[in-house]
Amino acid sequence: MSKPAAHGSIRRRLLLSLLAGAAVLAFVVYFVVQTVARQVAQESQDNVLAASAQSILDGARLSGGEVNVDLPYSALSMLDSISDERVFYAIHLEHEFLSGYADLPAPEGDPSGAPAFLSAEFLGEDVRIASVRRRVSTGAGRSYLKVSVAQTLSGQKLVLSRISRISITIGAGFFLISVFMAGIISGSAIRPLDRLTASVSRRGPKDLRPVAAPVPTEMVPLVASLNSFMRRLQQSLLRSEDFIAEAAHRVRTPLAIVRTKAEVIQRVSDDPETRKALKEMIHAIDDSSRTAGQLLDHAMVTFRLDHLVLEEINLLHLVHDTVERLRPTSELKDITMQAFGEQDSVIKGDPILVQNALHNLLDNAVKYSPAGSQIDVVLALNQNEAEVCVKDTGPGFPADELDSLPKRFVRGKNAEAVVGSGLGLTIAKEVITAHGGTLKISNNPGGGACVSLLFPLP
Amino acid sequence: MRQFALSLALIFTAGWSCAFEAEDVASFGPSDSKQVLRILSTADIDFFKPMILSFLASRPETAIDYTVASSTELQKAIVEEGQAFDVVVSSAMDLQTKLANDGLAQRYKSEATGSLPEWAVWNDMLFAFTQEPAAIVVSKTGFKDIPLPNSRNDLINLLRQHPEIFRSRVGTYDVRQSGLGYLFATQDTRASEIYWRLMEVMGGLDAQLYCCSSDMIDAVKSGDLLIAYNVLGSYAINREDREDFHIILPTDFTTVMLRTAMIPSNAPSAELSGEFIDHLLDMSHGLDAVPLTSAELDLSRVEPSLNRIKIGPGLLVFLDQLKRRSFLLEWESAILQN
Q: One Pfam family, short name please (chain A) (predicted)?
């Protein structure tokens, strides 16, 4: 049987799609954590800056129509309290510069007075600037006072790098957990398929019953097709076996008549040519009727195997019985047959089948042994099996065909001159397999074949 | 073209006329050396000499040019003229902070800077290598049977009890002239309101005002003054005649100034600057340090009351023109009562 061509793997595809999804999600998690945390960090920095600017603005007083800004010490020192930061500030009255760093860029102020923020570069470093404003009345009329405070980002950068590390850890952790889950999920998704495969491959060669175990919805059509396929296969098998048995049966009787007629004619004919032709004809008829008989046997064996009846069998009796049945045939070829072995070897099985198997082996032995040789049937009891061994002094088996011989219609290369169907070993093998035993074929060290039936002891 | 030449000439003469004024210049090491470290400092040559010599001892190929200038001239040289120096050393913490804050210092990191205590380094730009307390210097001869004041409160009580003795014989910095005096005064006001009371009392006694610590110490020695307030303790202790006066570190709080060094952003040989900074810090901090200020002024004795001035943008506050103006107004109204 050829191995089906494999293209892709459901498990791998499932695993890959789960992993791809997990990777995307992990990245999204990383990105979201990063963004949110950055925003929070930025907001907290902005709040501190705005508080600083506001405290400067609150310290501004009007005295004599002039603005007097009393810069609170904490307004600038608070910005430096966690990490060392460069700090800049600027105080403007409308567009008039009052104090601080005149060039400090200021964000477009919100007229409502809410703090405004800006990121810019100042004196060679990135800074964040907060700006607040307040309406004041001066001698020159109403105006507004604007305070901007800026801070470098070293503390912010520390926070951000920590946030990056944390969000990378979270993303990676999320991905690792997802990998673990993906492994479990793909395994459990594929399990019903594995189970079906196992249950189908566990079946015996003749088991064509429909799959009855419940399967997931997605697999129902497949199993339904499989079941229907097996049903058709079984029907077709039954039909062909019936057909063969029927055909063999129908052919046997006419063949017997033809053989009898041919023998009669052979006896009365004086023409040596005719006699020779008739002899060949009888030989061919024997061959055909033997094949038909074995086909019938095989059909019978197949039928009985399907409904195997287990009885206690005394192997030695059965062996003697079978030997006696074949003795007339063997004596025609002047072959001595001997049977010996242990008395109380009892196995469980179908006596008709076992006898049929043994009969086929003995028949083979008689057929392939030269005239005047000897056949021994030895019954031996091993530790947990009973061995019936048929030894002959024939040509033996070709060493390279030992495995293929018990197959249906396969005959040894050195058996072409002898009448035979190739079904004998097949029947024996099917019977012994159905009884849980094995068929062993080998060659004797001193020449000749040795075929053993090994039955398990009950 | 003529206009251009004229403006060029103007710029040149302007630059010439306004060039910063060095008080003193000294060179150490081989004169033909290719490696020259240029130091601009507010500290006297004698004060800094041991540090320079120990640095050069292991570097025979290196020379050092040492320029002394006042803190305002130092600012001028660095900010306005962009003079190329490799190391700038100053006792004016606020001005040093402003230089660093304004981006005129470069960052430097090394093993030595990494092991500094947190108060001694700011933004990897400023490195403190001395701790110099503001002390009360009292004349020994003038204070024969009068108990020594240990805190500002003691001092106030003493002045109030004996106005006749102390009239015109107390002195302190003129904070309008002296950057260091201004720094000490502003930090005192941050620490406690008692500074203003003390100034009121001293003003009532017709306090004498001085430009510098050494003048005050001289005045105490000569007997012109009985008490000098906020004198740089390291100057007093380093004098040879230090046995002539008491140096008192007030127990309520002692303001401590940190002398700092930095590498200007335009330093021509910044690598050598880094080595010098490392040497400076190794010699000043740690267990086997040889600080420039005398070890007899043991600060650990008064550790709980130490008010170390924190390097940082807070120092910019009192540099603010509006803030300075209002502070000086208040100070004048306290101390100038005649």
A: 2CSK_N
> Are the CB atoms for A177 and A25 separated by under 8 Å?
no
- Give the number of C-alpha atoms closer than 13 A to the C-alpha of residue B183, restricted to the C-beta side: 30
Beta strands in B114-264 (DSSP E): 121-122, 126-139, 170-173, 208-210, 227-232, 245-248, 254-262
Q: What pLDDT was estimated at residue A316?
A: 85
* Interchain pair B322, A77: CB under 8 A: no
Contact B109, B214 (CB under 8 A): no
Contacts of A72 in chain B (CB under 8 A): 317
Please name the CATH architecture into which domain B133-256+319-335 falls.
3-Layer(aba) Sandwich (3.40)
**List of chain B residues whose C-beta atoms are within 8 Å of the C-beta of residue A68:** 322, 326
- Chain B interface disruption, residue of A57, A66, A69, A71, most B CBs within 10 A: A71
Residue of A nearest to B189 (CA): A73
CATH architecture of B2-131+257-303: 3-Layer(aba) Sandwich (3.40)
CA distance B97 to A184: 61
Amino acid at B256: V
Structural tokens at position B268 = 């021509």
Neighbour-count burial of A212, counting CB atoms closer than 10 A to its CB (0-12 exposed, 13-18 middle, 19+ buried):
exposed
Q: What is the nearest CA distance from B153 to chain A, expressed in angstroms?
A: 25
For residue B10, the model assigns a pLDDT of 43
Beta-carbon contacts of A298 under 8 Å, excluding residues fewer than 6 positions away, are A244, A423, A426, A427
A173 CA to chain B: closest CA distance, Å? 34
Query: Residue A90's closest CA among A111, A106, A113, A76?
Result: A106
pLDDT at B155: 95
Angle at which helix B152-161 crosses helix B194-204, to 10 degrees, equals 20
Question: What is the assigned CATH class of domain A308-458?
Answer: alpha beta
Of A415, A418, A420, nearest to A398 (Cα)?
A: A415
Per-residue confidence (pLDDT) for residue B238, from 0 to 100: 84
Q: Give the model's confidence band at B337: pLDDT under 50 very low, under 70 low, under 90 confident, else very high.
A: confident
- Give the number of residues written for chain A: 458
A308-458 shares the fold of A14-161 = no
Sign of CA dihedral B303, B309, B310, B314: positive
Give the domain ranges of chain A.
Answer: 14-161, 205-306, 308-458
Split at pLDDT 50, 70, 90, the class of B11 is: very low
In this structure, the strands spanning B170-173 and B208-210 are: parallel
Q: Is the pLDDT assigned to residue A408 strictly greater than 70? A: no
Q: Read off the pLDDT of residues B209-244 as tens digits, 9 standing for 90 and up.
A: 999 888 999 999 999 999 999 999 888 888 888 888
For residues A411, A413, A417, A422, the Cα torsion angle rounded to the nearest 10 degrees is 0
- What mean pLDDT, rounded, does chain A reach? 84
Which two tokens mark B41?
Answer: 């400092």
Q: Which tokens in the block code for residue A308?
A: 């195997």
Other C-beta atoms lying within 10 Å of the C-beta of residue B117: 9
pLDDT score, position A346: 83
Using 50, 70 and 90 to split pLDDT, how confident is the model at A410?
low
Interface with chain A: mutation pick from B101, B308, B328, highest number of A CBs within 10 Å = B101
Enumerate the β-bridge partners of residue B28: B64
Neighboring chain A residues of B116 at a CB cutoff of 8 Å: none
Q: CB-based contact (8 Å) between A127 and chain B?
A: no
Nearest-Cα residue of chain B relative to residue A84:
B123
Question: Per-residue pLDDT for A151 more than 60?
Answer: yes
Chain A residue closest to B119 (CA)?
A: A84
**Residue that the structure tokens 């007339």 belong to:** A328
Chain A residues with CB under 8 Å of B122 CB are 84
Question: Hey, where are the domains in chain B?
Answer: 2-131+257-303, 133-256+319-335
Say whether pLDDT at A300 is over 80. Answer: no
Residue holding tokens 């005050």? B216
Instruction: Report the distance separating Cα A448 and Cα A446, nearest Å.
Output: 7
